[in-house]
Structures are given as structure tokens and as C-alpha cells.
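check this:
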Amino acid sequence: MKTGDIVVYPMHGAGVIDGIESSEVAGVKISYYILKLPIGNLKLMLPVDSIEQLGLRKVIGKEKIAEVEKILRGKPERTQGSWNKRFQAILDQMKSGDILDVAAVARNLSIQYRKRKITSSERRLMELSRQILISELVYAFNKSPEEVTDWIENILNKAEDKI
């Protein structure tokens, strides 16, 4: 990976590698990617040597957008169990870093939120999953966050109508 690459950091979303910086920690020189995330105007320092363990990956290509759309159009699934078991299962799904898992979480929680109450923790996960999904699709589609949000809402509205 190099400066200018567009990548996805699980649980944070998509951004651009803005540069590489070195820092000395306890006498050891460590190189970091500086990841600039447009949503929230956040900058993260990610150790170059730990990229694989962190799950950093390239943004999906246009060919995978159809798979994301299929997931969003699919029938929502409700995680069973107590709220804390549901929360952990959803969190684990999001931590995978796979856009299809994140899309499924966004779909499931968004439609549940529209139909009935969800816990405040689930609502935060819904908002985070949507933010992560939007951030990656902005780059995959080469569109604005508003256009991507409208695209997602349109799909979810049609999916909700089928239930």
C-alpha cells in the first residue's frame, strides 16, 4: 500500500492513505500509515507492520456493488437472544471488515428500527454500519455521501415494503 491508496479499515470505514510517518517508541523506529477518513474528518495512525492483523483492505470495485445491493434487498434476519448476545453477534459480524457483512447489519438493524424498537446499543451499531457502508460506497461509486445515502434508502424502502 502506498500514499494515495483508498482503503477500508474495519469498524471505521473507507479513507485515503495520506502519507507515511515514522516515530520512535522506546528506542524502536516504527512506520505508520496516516489514514484520513472523510466522514468525521478523522486521521488514524496505523502501524505499517500490522496492516494484515488490522484488516486494512482496498475498497471494493464496481463489480461488487451488485452483491451489496443484493444483500440490502434481501430479507432481514433478526439475531436471537438477549440484547447483550445480539449486540456481540452484530459487533463480531461488523468486525469482519467484509462489506457484505456490514451491509447485512445495516439492512437488518435499519428495517428492525423502522418496524419496532431496537436498543440504544443496536441503534449505535446501525448508525455505525451505515456510516461504514456509505464511506466505502462513496469511493466505489465515485458519488457523494448524499447520493449513496439516497441509493441505500431507496433500496431499504423497497425491501421493507416486501415484509
